[in-house]
Every structure is written in C-alpha cells, then in structure tokens.
Write a structure and sequence with these properties.
Elements (H helix, E strand, L loop, with lengths): L1 H38 L9 H8 L10 H28 L15
Helix pairs in contact: 1-3
C-alpha cells in the first residue's frame, strides 16, 4: 500500500509539472501578441500583428523569453497540485462517510 501511495504522489508531481509546462507553451505566444498590440501605435489595427511578426524575428520570436516562466510554472504547478492531491487523499482516508441511500428507495430492504 505504501509503494502505491508513493507512485500516486510521483504521478501527481509528473502530471502537474507537464500541465504547468503545457500552459506556458500555449499561453506565452498569446501573451507576447497581447503585449505587442498594447505597445504598438494606436493607429495600427489588431490584425497587423501577423504582418509585423517577421519584423520582430518571425514565428520563433513569439517563444522568446519563455525559459524562466517555463521552469517556474512547472515547479509551481507540480507542488501546488500535488499538495492538493495528497491532502484530498488524506481527507478521504480519515473522513470517509458512507454515501446515503438514494431518495425514495430507503424503505426497500
């Protein structure tokens, strides 16, 4: 039983670290576009970011500067979500209650 609990905690750490990494990989380019639109000239249209992307270094420029947020998000998500998972398992173990019978069927024995 103890080995199964260790594997569950390890699985939580790994899965939540991957989730944090994925959130940054998906969200960082959109944040970069948002910042470029906010700092551009007010007369430019919102669709001009696609035309201006080559000026900033092409498609790969959307991922520039992702190292620090990537490493931080992986660690933070892994720790927070693993702590939540472990506390949920402890709660369920110590405070488990039998579910009540479905309504209307309690008279049948």
């Amino acid at each position: 039983m103890e080995q199964e609990e260790e594997m569950t905690a390890l699985r939580d750490l790994l899965a939540d670290g991957i989730a944090g990494t994925a959130s940054v990989i998906v969200g960082h380019p959109f944040d970069t576009i948002k910042v470029r639109l906010q700092t551009s000239a007010p007369s430019s249209s919102s669709s001009s970011w696609g035309v201006a992307t080559p000026k900033f270094g092409g498609f790969s420029s959307l991922f520039r500067g992702m190292g620090a947020p990537l490493s931080a998000a992986a660690v933070i998500h892994a720790l927070i979500c693993s702590a939540f998972g472990e506390s949920s398992r402890v709660w369920d173990e110590y405070f488990s209650v039998e579910p009540p019978p479905p309504p209307g069927l309690s008279f049948i024995r």
